[in-house]
Design brief:
The complex is a heterodimer of chains A (156) and B (730).
Chain A lengths: L1 E4 L2 E4 L9 H8 L18 E4 L2 E4 L12 E3 L13 H8 L9 H14 L5 H8 L9 H18 L1
Helix pairs in contact in A: 2-5, 3-4
Chain B lengths: L5 H8 L8 H4 L11 E3 L9 E3 L5 E4 L9 H13 L6 E4 L17 H28 L7 E3 L2 E3 L5 E3 H5 L4 E3 L31 H5 L15 E5 L8 E6 L9 E7 L2 E6 L2 H10 L1 E5 L6 H7 L2 H6 L5 E6 L9 E7 L11 E6 L8 E5 L4 H12 L6 E5 L14 H12 L3 E4 L2 H7 L6 E9 L5 E11 L13 H4 L5 H4 L10 E9 L13 H19 L3 H8 L5 H15 L9 E10 L3 E12 L4 E12 L6 H21 L4 E2 L2 E2 L17 E6 L18 H13 L10 H8 L1
Parallel strand pairs in B: 3-4, 9-19, 17-18, 21-22, 25-28
Antiparallel strand pairs in B: 1-8, 2-3, 5-6, 6-7, 9-12, 10-13, 11-12, 14-22, 15-20, 16-17, 16-19, 20-21, 23-24, 24-25, 26-27
């Protein structure tokens, strides 16, 4: 089995082909930026994009991602290391506290901005409501999404 | 390696910080932290702050990172004292073999206990470098002026730290008899470059790029995966166990059974889940676990009917009967930490020739305690064990125990190969040392002028730091003769009354208990601030003005917070319609942190929901080392306030913990989060205190008081449900 992750093909050993996409990413392929938190697709810490669709990888069998394009937090910055405007906004607003949920938050926000380039508060509430943050960084996440949205709109 | 004993460190620095290994030493708070400075001796790992031979600054960050970003504040202090930029400080999280033992990271103590020693360390280093610069430049020390990462003279000769460091090695020790160096951090006249500025948290780029930071992110060749069954409470015993089907699971390697420990080791995480699901177990518990039992145990009125409560905190001319203006009971339920990261650990045993026989990677608030426990558990000496502490995905007081580490050590020992243990969300709820339920009876009497005459606060709470799982059984009865500092926190009122009594009783609850953000302070101050708000209503007085008029004289900082938050709240108008309300509350944490909160709520009778619209928070914790990070902690505490007031309660039934995930232990979501205004009240002349759990004391009562004003309903039981309101007001 092969997986295309952040534009690169990876081989999945036979032992791992019945695992979740999350466990393969983390413990087989060593891409640990995507995190395990609830295990039932309810908190969004494990969120990645599969063919541009925000997907909770903890409840996605790896076989369902075969032949598709997977994007994880590790693939979000440009090849030259320039951060994505969402990542930069997250730094500018000093969003993270413990940080554990933030890669999932950023990947969910990416999905939102792809659909809705100029989101209002209600759009953000709706899109982000499935991503939990125990530290309560929501006000800063909201600000950062709006900031990154502006940067992306100005760039396009 | 140069070894410095703890005693010598304490002697050389003359500084002792509190709050350390309570697990072992109970009320003796002597075990502590102490910096020393060794320059530029790369042999020594005992230093926190070093200038390396190439002139760069290296700092072992002494706090365990879990989102509080205390190390950022400490690095700012080092930068201020050494005239270097934050980017030029290489910060390293030390292992237990790199530095002498550090106090547990808990109780919002980090800035309180560490800011001064680290300032002294860095300033002493700076002044020794200045003396060397004087020698090198042939000028009197007084003519050597600060420069960026070095010094200069008035006639513009300059020398960098790198040049000075390239000289001969120099050992710097603090001399208690000499006058201390000037501490730039604590000089209110100084225009500061780092302290007081909103520096971005250390490591923030690693977080947003998904770099490996947490225990489960450790990758290791040939690592196996394992997990153990978790009982609903720590003293439960296995009643029945069936493991017959487990061997049929693909990838299964071994079942490890040792009394009440049952664990599996497999090739992959998925096979661990499958193997665990094949095991059938029932647990025998010593106390029935259900809500009625918890309610019965904390029934404060029943306890008072039996006579005085066991511990009396304050007793001043107490009168047991008076014309009570307020006589209300408040109940608070069990809450769990529910940190976003479920705990994980990896252990590895090495051969006799290795520096460490046992290595453990884990996220913990107390790495040195993990080392001691692992030594007791394995029979190895402490010198043979090293803990590599990793960033934690939230701590909140719940990560001080040798548990996931123990699972990893047991399974690794059984396999002879490293095993990674990743707890599930359900494991987290089963293992949590929760915030106890408590019940408070508050009676207040006043004179004709409305001034307080009698204050009587009696409460029953589950244990906190003296919870049964935290101490050996033989020690418990003795320890419990004293006060449980978790249970008493927050009970000393900010208000003055000539007749005063505060008493409590602490009890075993059927669920596991321990330290939770703010300990008893949030429950106690919820009760106190609700009662005072009700009294202001009764007197027809403005709650802010009335509370200010009744405060103890020595708390002007609290008055300032409350008045500040009122000004902030007034900047928004609240609709005059029914259903809208604004509430205020305030409190003192550990007699050194002051906070006030306002909450605007809307009780939507059509949708059947309570919505917190907006909160304001003004806080004074002394010197504001990093104002933006102080705001971040206030915001976090407002989120927890909404959770405590409206959402969270650990569900228990049928001798089990039935909360198992975020669907049956919901936490605040984006759409439930109010907008928030914060105000940091800076006190440049007062040493900084911690802010990690301060504002949670005032948030829940502010919300409850807002609901009272919106609907007439006085919440006496948290969490407040919409149905409670309708039931009481029609």
């Amino acid at each position: 089995m092969k997986l295309n992750i952040n534009g690169i093909d990876y081989h999945v050993d036979s032992d791992w082909q019945n695992e979740s996409l999350l466990d393969v990413l983390r413990d087989h392929l060593g891409m640990t930026g995507t995190h395990f938190s609830c295990g039932i697709g309810q908190c969004g810490a494990c969120l990645v994009h599969v063919d541009n669709e925000p997907t909770t990888s903890c409840i996605t069998p790896v076989s369902m991602a075969e032949g598709k394009e997977i994007l994880t937090i590790e693939g979000l910055a440009s090849d030259d290391g320039t951060l994505h405007p969402l990542q930069q906004a997250w730094i500018d607003e000093a969003v993270p506290q413990c940080g554990f949920c933030q890669s999932g938050q950023i990947m969910r926000a990416l999905g939102l901005l792809q659909e809705t380039p100029d989101p209002d508060d209600a759009d953000i509430d709706q899109a982000m409501n499935g991503n939990l943050c125990r530290c309560g960084t929501y006000p800063r996440i909201r600000k950062s999404i709006k900031k990154a949205a502006l940067v992306l709109r100005e760039a396009s | 390696m140069v070894k410095l004993t703890r005693r010598r460190l304490l002697l050389t620095t003359g500084w002792i910080a509190g709050g350390a290994t309570v697990l072992y030493m109970l009320r003796n708070r002597a075990a502590a932290v102490a910096p020393t400075i060794i320059f530029p001796d790369s042999q020594s790992a005992a230093a926190w702050v070093q200038i390396r031979p190439d002139g760069t600054c290296m700092m072992y960050v002494p706090r365990m990172e879990m989102g509080q970003n205390a190390n950022t504040g400490l690095a700012q202090i080092v930068a201020e004292e050494l005239n270097v930029s934050i980017e030029d400080i290489e910060t390293i999280q030390p292992s237990t073999s790199d530095v002498p033992p550090l106090a547990v990271t808990a109780g919002s103590m980090s800035l309180t206990a560490f800011s001064k020693p680290i300032a002294v360390a860095a300033a002493t280093l700076r002044e020794s470098l200045r003396a060397k610069a004087a020698e090198k430049l042939g000028s009197p020390v007084n003519d050597i002026l600060d420069d960026v990462a070095g010094f200069r003279t008035k006639d513009n000769q300059s020398v960098t730290y790198a040049t000075l460091a390239a000289d001969s090695p120099l050992l710097v020790e603090l001399d208690e008899t000499a006058p201390p160096p000037e501490l730039y951090t604590f000089n209110p006249q100084r225009m500061k470059t780092h302290v007081g500025h909103s520096t971005k948290p250390l490591g923030i780029e690693a977080v947003v790029t998904g770099a490996p930071l947490y225990a489960a992110d450790i990758t290791m060749k040939d690592v196996l995966h394992g997990r153990a069954l978790r009982p609903p409470v720590h003293n439960a015993e296995i009643e029945t166990l069936s493991t017959d089907d487990v061997e049929s699971v693909p990838g299964f390697l071994r079942l490890v059974r040792d009394d009440n420990f049952v664990g599996v080791v497999c090739r992959t995480p998925g096979s661990v889940n499958a193997a665990i699901s094949k095991i059938q177990v029932t647990w025998k518990v010593k106390q029935p676990i259900n809500q009625a039992e918890i309610d019965r145990l904390v029934d404060v009125d029943k306890a008072l009917a039996d006579g005085d409560l066991e511990h009396v905190l304050h007793n001043a001319e107490h009168q047991s009967s008076a014309d009570w203006a307020i006589n209300l009971r408040f109940d608070v339920q069990v809450q769990s930490h529910a940190a976003q990261e479920p705990r994980a650990a990896i252990a590895r045993f090495n051969d006799d020739h290795s520096r460490h026989r046992l290595e453990i990677w884990t996220g913990t608030q107390d790495p040195w305690a993990m080392k001691r426990f692992a030594a007791m558990h394995t029979g190895l000496s402490e010198d043979d064990i090293v803990i590599y502490p990793q960033r934690m995905g939230g701590g909140f007081g719940g990560r001080e125990h040798y548990e996931v580490e123990q699972d990893a050590v047991r399974l690794t020992a059984a396999m002879g190969r490293p095993v990674k243990v990743q707890w599930t969300r359900k494991d987290e709820f089963m293992a949590a040392r929760n915030r106890p339920a408590s019940a408070h009876r508050i009676r207040i009497a006043i004179n004709e002028a409305g001034t307080l005459t009698n204050w009587w606060h009696a409460y029953v709470s589950g244990h906190v730091v003296l919870a049964r799982e935290r101490l050996p059984g033989w020690l418990l009865p003795v320890a419990r003769l004293g006060e449980d500092f978790g249970v008493i926190r927050g009970a000393h009122p900010a208000y003055e009354a000539p007749h005063q009594r505060v008493e409590y009783k602490d009890v075993d609850l059927p669920v596991d208990l321990g330290v939770w953000r703010s300990l008893n302070a949030a429950p106690a101050i919820f009760a106190i601030e609700s009662a005072m708000d009700e009294l202001a209503l009764l007197l027809g007085q403005d709650p802010v003005a009335y509370k200010v008029s009744q405060m103890r004289d020595q708390v002007p900082r609290l008055k300032a917070c409350l008045e500040q938050v009122k000004t902030m709240a007034m900047q928004r108008s609240l609709p005059e319609q029914s259903g809208y309300g604004r509430g205020f509350a305030c409190g003192i944490y550990e007699e050194r942190c002051f906070v006030a909160v306002s909450a605007d709520v809307y009780v939507d009778r059509e949708k059947g929901e309570i919505k917190v619209l907006h909160m304001c928070c003004a806080q004074d914790v002394g010197m504001a080392v990093n104002p933006d990070q102080l705001s971040a902690q206030m915001e976090s505490n407002m989120a927890w306030s909404v959770g405590m007031a409206l959402i969270e309660r650990l569900e228990v039934a049928d001798d089990n913990i039935t909360s198992s995930n975020f669907d049956n232990y919901p936490i605040v979501r984006m759409a439930e989060m109010p907008s928030i205004d914060t105000k940091v009240i800076d006190q440049p002349t007062i040493p900084p205190a911690g802010a990690g759990e301060v504002a949670l004391i005032a948030g829940p009562p502010a919300i409850a008081n807002a609901i009272r004003r919106a609907t007439g309903f006085r919440a006496q039981r948290l969490p407040i449900r919409f149905e409670d309101i309708d039931g009481n007001t029609g």
